[in-house]
Batch of 3 targets.
Target 1
Amino acid sequence: MTEDADEAVETFYSEERWQNWISRIEEEELDPENEDSARLLINLQDDAAIAVAKVLSAYEDGRIDEDRALEEIEDVREIVLTEVDFDDEDKTMLIDGVQTSLVPVFYAAEEYIVGGVVEGDLDEYVGAAADAEADEDLDAALGYIVQAGTRIIDGDQLDIELVENIEYGLVSEWVNGLDSLQSAIQDPEVVEED
């Protein structure tokens, strides 16, 4: 593939894009109870999920192969999961929450590319993840959430009631990320940074 043809494929995400979000968050007075602050964090999270959805779409359309798709997902993951250290501890915690939510998005995309969609019921995977978290088996919990993520990539819908009944913890944060992935797959429009 020539460099021109490769360029035509598209850039899915960039360090600069992430840094623009981070700079914006650094400048804003953030209050998670405030709707504008919450929206900014959701947009940041959705923007990364949209990048993942675009990689998956390019892969499914045959515009990129498995290796390139996995490479692109890894690139987005490395950019997004790089530790961010603000002077403001609350902001650092909020970004950490966004990063935590996005972890299963990356793993689910990789699992989908390498292994396809798992059999079974999306809600049952989420329930099993919540049970595993209650038993303090976080590896199993993440595994179930990743499997649920492959179902979402395939078009299954998260039951919002189920989500609201999950006790706050890692699983609820991960499900929040899957919700962003679901939105991104249904409507992969770019979130404007301003």
Target 2
Amino acid sequence: MRLDLDPRGSWLVDPRDLAARLGISVAYLKRQMSRGLVTSRLDPGREEDEGRSRITIRAAIAAWEGIFDRDGHLISERRL
């Protein structure tokens, strides 16, 4: 899994990858997104984690957290 930047500088992730990590179907994820029920939070790393980012995604019945390096590569992850 990897994060990419869109032209505006926002992080993008493939919904198929995200749905698999959340343990839900892509269709369910997209429905929840269209209803505004999927939240995301980006926390930049500090001190020893400088250059890394923690992404937390919550859908109605699932949550996932991933740590990414400055190039957008997934370093570690866990289901919440």
Target 3
Amino acid sequence: MKNGKLFLISLLFVPFTTQAQTFFTEDFNSYPTGHLNTNYDDTTPGQGGWLVSRGSIGSGTGMITAEAGKGNVLTITSNSATIPGSYSFRQEDGFLTTLWNNRTPGNNIFKFEYEFYGVGQINFAVHILNSSNVNATIISLAFQSNFGPNLNRISGSYLENTSFKTLNLKNYNTTPFPHNIWIKAEMFVDYNAKNVYFYIPTLNIQATAPFYHNTIPFSLDFSAGSLDITSIVKIDNIKVSGLKTLPSYILSTNKQLSSKFNLYPNPATNVVNITNTENMVVQQVTVYDIAGKLITTQNFNEQAEIQLNVENLASGTYMLHLQTNEGTAVKKLVKK
């Protein structure tokens, strides 16, 4: 059941009796076919409260269409073969803040999910925002195909602290972009462990990274750009939830990534060597003490084997966050 409705309900899932709270769902099934919103002014609510806008050339259009086996979906297209078009749809400012502030105590993991289908030239992204500024993103996921030279990829972005970081989840410069299939995507912001997670089960993609802020969700925004007459973007089954614990499939995959890395010597005195079994490259190592305090950050130039200088660390136990293209692995280090 979804109709752009708001929910504040709790469900028990088995096994593990993990309690989840559904805030909002949208599957477009209750709407007649045709425009999601006939007013493309970004200020007049349409069906389900959705606000829509498009580029000045007016070539981006969002229509409710029937999809075999799925019911209704939102289909975004362009009528221009020469000038790239754009289309955006969003909920009103503060939409997520109200839902988040009324969540059941303990549901401190924000989950956002949807299904995506793309064809042709596209630059499609969904942003969970922390203010009305579209650049103020807590977490976002982008699908880019034929967007520009060497821009055939899926990427995830997130607010680290006061700046934004981007993870290149999958490059498609030498392999075909996954067109013409429905892709399930999930994003998590875990305010307990201070980690974000990107999960695309359809393509077997998962990544994670740490963050260091308490900024809460404000609103959500979908945007499709670089559209031409060959472009098709479809969206379905949008859902916003609050969780007490991460799903087991997220936890198990994160542990698998960490298990691929080796630290030696450990305990260490001056230098610790960091290697892995699959030649994954490391961009950055962030060191925390056992209380979670940030100690230092060191950047590396896409190296599969690195030497980390720990000479200036006080004796004790530390957690190393290793940022890679596949996510962030966490390893424990003991400094003599």
